[in-house]
Amino acid sequence: MNRKTLFTIRIALIVALGGFLMGFDASVISGVNKFVQIDFNLTDLELGFSVSSLTIVAALAMMISGPLSDRFGRRTILKTCAVVFTVSAIGSALAPNFLSFLIFRMLGGVGVGASLILAPMYIAEISPPEQRGRLVSFNQLNIVLGITIAFFSNYFILSLGDSDANWVRALGIAENNWRWMLGVEALPAVLYFFGLLSVPRSPRWLLMKELVKEAKTVLRKFSSEEQAEKDIKAVTASLENDRNKNKVSLAELFRPAMRLVITIGVVIAVLQQITGINSVFFYAPMIFEQSGIGTDASFIQAILVGVTNLIFTILAMVLIDKLGRKPLLAFGVAGIGVFMVLLAYGFNSATYRLTQEQINTLPDTELREELSILVGKSFENDVQYKNELKSVLGTERAKQHESELITAAIDMNPSLILIGIIGFVACFAISLGPVMWVLFSELFPLKIRGVAISFVGFVNSAVSAGVQFIFPWELSTIGSALTFLLYGLFAFVGLIFIIRVIPETKGKSLEELEAQLVK
């Protein structure tokens, strides 16, 4: 491996840290939800909005980050993202009330949306063609790694709270655990900012600004002088060609000839989110707590979610060009449906009954006295039991003690829930997760590709925000069993669409696909 290749890899890895921060910022909230809801006395819908607001802002940031990077440069906007991530992490960790917490979380959404677009864009613009796929994939791997590390970090901070070490008590980690979970993100964000100082400006952007001499100097760092000259000529010709093209409007997507490809794009964009993936990533400990395993064990099992996601994402990258897009989609979505039905069955089989012996194990004397009225009563589902707890204890105290009271009363097999969640994440990570973006890059004709991907990406983000927003309300109102059953039914409907409508794109040129799909 020569010096220029090593330099290219190093720069790509630095820039891809933006993907790590995006994944970390998006999923660190999973460990924070329960504590924030109690500290700020949030309703289920307020909690849902505090989670989904980041995705809403990220969708808007995705729409403006491209034009801003064209004006100010990729590197400049990425450095701004690093600052935004740092301020968001520290601000949300120190937030004195729900409004300020919400504002700083939404600020983090700016960094998430911009880095999602700009990190892979920059890497693609500095990569030699034969290395581009592998180097751009660094960003996706970093997103998944960021999600996984967030689960580890949350559990580590939670477990530190049980330590008697003087420095743990001095830092207030036990009583402020959720604040430390959020604040720790500032460390990689600061590293990202200083790492970007060694990153050169994008050669394509320099040529857009007619800074040919600097562009040539940058390109020589990544390739030979001869290749740099070829790249400059190719990029200049491409830019000139773009100037002579008419801009494509959104209306182009809805012409009759585009009906099939836009239908496929929208359905897959919706299906990826409506089957519940971000309910699991953003609320994993909360879901596991519903099976009665307790807070600590729920955080440990959330780590398994992140590790599974990482392993099967890598597996998908290995298999996607060997097996094809359609087989992976069909297999994965079928598995999603099966494992969601398993989750629904597991939660539906649960019953809830408090005995005097179980109540006596609770540390709070006043709580034991209030709950004595429930001794001997049986409840057939989680909604009935939670509503009874609210009527006895009040909404705020019922939510505060929900985990330990579910653990005390529930009778079910928690292994079914762990198997269901891990199986669901594995099936998603090998199919809808990575395959959707590959399909989007192949399905749409070149003329409308940019605006089409922006449109279906926005649809995907909007559905994701909606799913995150209503999930806590669903758990409280219709229960865990029905919530997961709905996700499973959506998966089976999507499976029928995949089998009947979606073509296999593996091994076909973009021109062949356009001739096949655009009538």
Textual characterization of the structure:
This protein has 519 residues and is mainly α. It folds into 3 domains: 1-199, MFS general substrate transporter like domains (Growth Hormone, Chain: A, Up-down Bundle); 248-350 and 412-502, Growth Hormone, Chain: A; 351-411, no CATH class. Helix content is 80%, strand content 1%. It is built from 26 helices and 3 strands. The protein has a 3-stranded antiparallel beta sheet. Helix 14 (277-289) runs antiparallel to helix 15. The protein is globular, with a radius of gyration of 25 Å. The mean pLDDT is 85.
User: For this structure, what is the CATH homologous superfamily of the largest domain?
Assistant: MFS general substrate transporter like domains
Tally the helices. 26
Query: How many domains, in number, for the residues?
Result: 3
Round the mean pLDDT to the nearest integer and report it.
85
Shape assignment:
globular
Q: Determine the fraction of residues in helical runs and give it as a percent range.
A: over 70%
Largest sheet: 3 strands, antiparallel
- Please tell me how large the radius of gyration is: 25 Å
- How much of the residues is beta strand, in percent? under 5%
Widest sheet: strand ordering:
2-1-3
